[in-house]
Specification:
The protein is 50% helix and 13% strand. The protein is elongated, with a radius of gyration of 33 Å. The protein has helices at residues 22-28, 31-39, 43-54, 61-76, 78-95, 107-135, 142-154, 157-169, 203-208, 224-237, 239-279, 304-310, 337-353, 386-400, 418-434, 446-454, 488-497, and strands spanning 177-182, 188-194, 287-289, 296-301, 317-320, 326-331, 361-365, 370-374, 406-410, 438-442, 460-467, 473-479. The chain is built from 17 helices and 12 strands. α14 (386-400) links the parallel β8 (370-374) and β9 (406-410). The strands form 3 sheets. The protein has a 6-stranded mixed sheet, sandwiched between helices. By secondary structure, the chain is α/β, with parallel strands linked by helices. Mean pLDDT is 84; it is low at 99-103. The termini are far apart.
């Protein structure tokens, strides 16, 4: 049995390789805030959402739609989802109570342990089937319909009763009947286990009843060698049964681990949904467009990580960048440019993970990779200058770029003077856009932004952080041409002049 709740035809692999730039992506977009909020105190949920979101750019439109439909079911039936997850976790907990130790290496120990484990699993499987029976009509997604149908078809009462019967037989309460052929030197070979149902006798029948019609021998209670030899014969005889039972346990255990893993993603999404509801923050299920298109439009998109940190709604932004390869973002310091850039990156990851996104409306084309190039703070261990470090990172990025990648630049190449920085940034951006890659670039370099603006490039959108006449920031971005100033004097006046300091 396979849950198939994250993909419609394959199982999700929690051990799959992470993207080469995962560390930078997590740092630049503050994704750990999102992961922790989704996970709560559940370590499994944390690991699963981290892996699913980090590897989201590998998903196709079919996978995204598959997950979205399942997630809609989960939101509509939250109690049922939690019931499924709790039952699955309880099933895995029963494995910890199994009879393990040095004796589990012997066939008899494996049989004993496996029977105990499977009996517990059968009870948990029956609970899963009950949830399917009670809730299958409430779920509309193809993923859950298939999952519940599998539980109902394969875990019938007759099937579970048959398992119980076989497990009871394999406990060998009436003894073990094993036949051997004689090999060289009269050694037993080719052991074969037989079904054996000995008639139960009371003490009077055992003492005075007829003697068995076959040869019998008894091992003296103090004959350790004889007892060991007899135990070896028994273990060889039940070895095939032990192997089959061990594989059965592994198969059922894998199912429960996989089910917990795949349900954990939706538990994390549901946790996030409940937090957004508490903040009365908007969300929507986005439309994932084909990768070869240039589609990117949204309304009221906000940085969900910032909202989770502040525990309140965040001002959102609107944008229509359809048919655009380049979005250049300029404007006032502390006007929300970096926050906007993070919101674009996080929303793309959430969309391609199959999640809802923090916006009232959102659609975008699927991207093959999400790459960030954000400015770094000065590092005392840095062996070269900040510009060298930025160029080295850009060189690594160039080696990993794939068609239809999305690149987010935040104040890149500003570690030198504006003339040089603008020239470097211009050459990098032109090379990327000529290859039809999608680029968002936050910058204070007027020469760089003005060059693209004056070129009247049709595939470029210019956004600017809004600043009111009274110098206040709205933290919204508007479509507008670049200005020569970033109004850094506003920050100076706020920090120094308003505090009564004179310099």
């Amino acid at each position: 049995m396979k849950p198939l709740l994250l993909y419609n035809n394959i199982e999700f692999d929690l051990k799959q390789p992470s993207p080469w730039n995962e560390k930078d992506m997590l740092t630049d977009l503050d994704l750990d805030t999102l992961f922790k909020s989704m996970a709560g105190k559940d370590d499994v949920v944390y690991e699963v959402v981290k892996k699913t979101i980090s590897t989201a750019m590998q998903n196709d439109a079919g996978t995204i739609f598959h997950r979205q439909e399942i997630l809609k079911d989960c939101i509509a039936n939250a109690n049922s989802l939690h019931a499924l997850y709790d039952i699955t976790v309880a099933g895995l907990e029963t494995r910890k109570t199994g009879w393990l130790g040095v004796f589990s290496r012997h066939p008899s120990g494996v049989v004993f342990d496996s029977i105990h484990t499977i009996e517990n699993f059968v009870n948990i499987l029956r609970e899963l089937r009950s949830v399917a029976d009670e809730n299958s009509s409430k779920f509309n997604s193809e993923g859950f319909k298939r999952f519940f149908g599998m539980l109902q078809d394969e875990l019938t009462d007759d099937y579970l009763a048959e398992i119980k019967e076989h497990l009871n037989m394999l406990q060998f309460k009436d003894g073990t009947l094993i036949s051997y052929n004689l090999g060289k030197e009269n050694k037993g070979i080719n052991p074969q286990l037989h079904a054996y149902h000995a008639a139960r006798k009371n003490w009077f029948q055992r003492l005075f009843g007829p003697k068995p019609k076959f040869y019998t021998f008894y091992i003296h209670p103090r004959d350790e060698s004889g007892a060991r030899a007899l135990s070896d014969l028994k273990n060889k005889g039940i070895n095939l049964v032990a192997d089959a039972l061990g594989k059965s346990v592994d198969h059922i255990l894998h199912f429960f681990i996989q089910l917990q893993t795949e349900l954990a993603f939706y538990i994390g999404c549901l946790n996030l949904y409940e937090q957004l509801q508490t903040m009365q923050a908007v969300y929507c299920f986005p439309e994932a467009m084909p990768s070869h298109h240039r589609k990117h439009s949204f309304t009221n998109l906000y940085d969900v990580c910032l909202a989770l940190k502040m525990h309140q709604k965040i001002i959102g932004n609107e944008m229509n960048a359809d048919d655009k390869n380049l979005v250049i973002i300029t404007g006032a310091n502390q006007g929300g440019k970096s926050t906007f850039l993070r919101s674009v990156g996080v929303a793309q990851l959430m969309m391609q993970s199959g999640m809802f996104v923090p916006a009232a409306f959102f659609y975008a084309n699927i991207c093959s990779a999400l790459i960030t190039h954000f400015k770094r703070e000065e590092d005392v261990e840095m062996k070269s200058g900040k510009l060298d470090e930025e160029l080295n990172r850009m060189n690594i990025i160039a080696e990993h770029i794939s068609p239809n990648s999305l690149l987010l630049f935040n104040e890149s190449f500003a570690a030198t003077n504006e003339l040089e920085g603008s020239e470097i940034a211009g050459q990098v951006v032109r090379a990327l856009t000529e290859k039809k890659l999608k680029v968002f670039f936050v910058t204070h370099m007027y020469a760089f932004a003005q060059h693209f603006y004056s070129s009247a490039v049709n595939h470029t959108l210019f956004l600017r952080a809004e600043r009111k006449e009274d110098t206040s920031r709205t933290f919204k971005l508007i479509e507008a041409k670049p200005l020569e100033t970033s109004f850094g004097i506003d920050v100076y006046n706020k920090v120094f002049v308003s505090a009564g300091k004179k310099y």
